Amino acid sequence: MNKIGPGRPEPVKRIAKSVRVDQRLIAGMIAPGTRVLDIGCGDGTLIDHLFRTKGCDARGIEIDMAEVTRAVAHGLPVMHGDADFDLSHYPNETFDYVVLSRTLQAVERPRAVLQQMLRIGARAVISFPNFGHLSVRWQLFSRGRMPMTAAWDRPWYETPNIHPCTIRDFFDLCAQEGYAVEQWLAADEAGRRTPWRRFPLLANLFGEQGLFLLRRA
Amino acid sequence: MGLDCGVHLPEVDIAFRTYGALNAEGSNAILVCHALTGDQYVAERHPITGREGWWTQVVGPGRPLDTDRFFVVCANVLGGCMGSTGPRSPRGETGEPWGTDFPPVTIRDMVRAQKRLVEHLGIRRLFAVIGGSMGGMQALEWAASYPDAVFASIPVATAAHHSAQNIAFHEVGRQAIFADPDWQGGRYWQTGRQPLRGLAVARMCAHITYVSEVALTRKFGRRLQSAPKDNREAIDLFGDMFEVESYLRHQGSSFVRRFDANSYLTITRAMDYFDLAADHGGDLAAAFRGSRTRFCIVSFTSDWLFPTEESRTIARALNRAAANVSFVEIPTDKGHDAFLLDEPDFHRTIAGFLAGCAVHAGLDSP
To answer: How far is B257 from chain A (nearest CA, A)?
Structure first.
C-alpha cells in the first residue's frame, strides 16, 4: 500500500487499534496520565490505547522485529528489545507501571524479570496463562500427556512457554519476593473477568489466566 | 564562529536548500543532515552531476518527509565543497584557498553552523532532525547539544562513535589521496592538476564498505566484460575485466567530478573524531539525560559499516537516560547504503514515527 514509487504514496493513516478484552482489563488497572512501559507490546495496541484513552506516556519493548516495525510505523514509541536483557538499562523508577502481558511464562528468568520490573517501575501489571486451570489438570490426569488448550496451544517440544505457573504459584512467588498484591483477578481465555475474586483456590481451578497488580511491599 | 579546535572562523558561509513552507508558528521544520559525500541537493536535480537528488524517495510531496506538510531544510556541512565554507573557500584577502590549512572541524562544529542557519530561518525548535551515517551522527549531536531545539531525532545507520575499523578504512582513502603525485601537498590549485586518481581510489575503497557482499554478488558476481581499449589502469584478462572492477572505477571517476580532495580529508577526519560518549565524561547516557526529544533509531541488518549493535548501544544509552526511544532494525541485504535506497519498511517507519510525533507536538493535520 505504501509502496514508494513514482506518484503519490498513500498517506499514513492513524487509526486506533482494536484492544483485546484482556488488554482492557490491564488498562483498567492503570491510572491516567502515568508513565507506562509495556514489555512484549506486540504491535503496540495497548500503548496506543493507553495514550488515546488515558493520556499515558506509554512506551513498548518487543522482541519480534516485524511487530516493532508495525508499531513504529503506526507512530508508537516501541523499541526492539528482550525482556531478559534490556530492562537492566533503565534507571530506577523510570515508570509508574511496567506491564508484562502473557509473556512471563516465556522469558528465561521470570524471577529476575519481575525484579527488574519492580525496580524500574513503581508498580507491575502481569498477566499469564494459568497452568492450574481445570482443563490443563484434567488432560494431564486423564491422558497422562502434556495438555493442549487454547492458552497452551503448542506441543511441548516447540512451545516458547518454558516457565508455566499457576495462580497459586504466582501468589507464592510474590510472598517470597516481598511484593504486595494490590489487585488480582482471574479471567477466561478471551479476557473476560471470572467471578472468583475472593477465592484463590477456585480462581486457580477455573481461571484461564491470572492478572496481577504488584508493588514493592 | 568558534570551532572546537580553538580556531575562530571570522566568516562562515552555509549553502542550503529548502523544500515546502514554514508554517506561521515555525513549528514544522525538519533538518536533513547529509552523509560524508552528500550535499544539500536532497530532492532536486544536482547542478553538477545532473542526477536526481539523493533522497527523493524520502523527501517530497506525499513522501515520508512530506513537503506539503513539513518545511525541509538541508545544508552543506561546514568543511564541505558545495558552497559552505571549507578547504576550497578563499582564505582572507589573498583569495587563495584554505587547502590543508583549513582548521579541523568536528561533527559538533557542523551542528553549530546548522544551528546558526536554523535560527537565521526563524526556527526556534526543529520538529525533527534526520540523517543517515554521518548525518545520523549530526542528528545525535543535535539532540545532545540542543535538546530543547529538537522535538524528534532520527539517527539512521549510524553510531555514537566511529569505530577503529571505520577509521582504518578512512585512513586508506586518505593515504590514496596523499600518494597521488597530483596531491602536491594539498596545494593542487596552484598547478590546476587535482589528485583525481587518489580521490577516486578513496571513493572506490569507501564504496565497498557501503554495500554488502550479498549485494555485490547479486549485482556483479564474477561476470566479465570487455576491458576498455586504452586500458592502462588495470590488468586485463585476455581483454576482459570483472564487472565489479568497472563499476568501482565508474563510482570513483564520477565522484571526483563533484568532490574536493581536501574536503574529503576534512570531513573524514570529522567523522573519525566523533565520540559522543567521550564528550560527556565517557557516559553516552549523560549526553541525553533529561532529554525530552523523541528518538527513532534505525539500523539495517546487512550494514557492516555501522552494524545494528552500534544502534543498540545508542538505544540502550537512551534507555539509561529514560528518553523516549523507538528502535527498529530493517531487514535488507543492501548494506549501509540501504538508507539511500528503496526500502519500503524504512520509509514506512519514518513516516509513521513522524506522524506519531506530529500528534504529540500538536502539529495540525493538513
So the answer is: 29
- Chain A residues whose CB is inside 8 A of the B345 CB are 69, 73
CA–CA dist B29, B120 (Å, integer)? 13
- B228-250 average pLDDT score: 79
Give CA–CA dist A194/B303, Å, rounded.
50
Q: How far apart are CA B116 and CA B112, in angstroms?
A: 6
Kindly write down the DSSP assignment for every residue of B235-281, as one continuous string.
Answer: --BTTEEEHHHHHHHHHHHHHHTT--HHHHHHHHHHHHH-BTTGGGT
The tens digit of pLDDT for each residue in B295-305 reads 999 999 999 99
Cell 564541505 sits on residue: B80
What would the CATH number be for the domain defined by B166-265? 1.10.1740.110
- All structural domains of chain B with their residue ranges: 16-162+272-361, 166-265
Average pLDDT of chain B to the nearest whole number:
95
Residue B207 is a catalytic residue: no
In this prediction, residue A189 carries a pLDDT of 76
Question: Chain B residues with CB inside 8 Å of A75's CB?
Answer: 352-357, 359
Q: Is the residue at A71 inside a domain?
A: yes
Contact A26, A46 (CB under 8 A): yes
pLDDT(B216) > 80: yes
CATH number of B16-162+272-361: 3.40.50.1820
Chain A neighbors of B319, CB-CB under 8 A: 79, 86, 89-90
Which of B57, B320, B352 faces A72 most closely, judged by CB atoms?
B352
Angle between helices A21-28 and A45-54 (to 10 degrees): 50
Cβ of B355 within 8 Å of Cβ of A91? The answer is no
Task: Tell if the CB–CB gap between A2 and B330 is shorter than 8 Å.
Answer: no
- ipTM > 0.85 (yes/no): yes
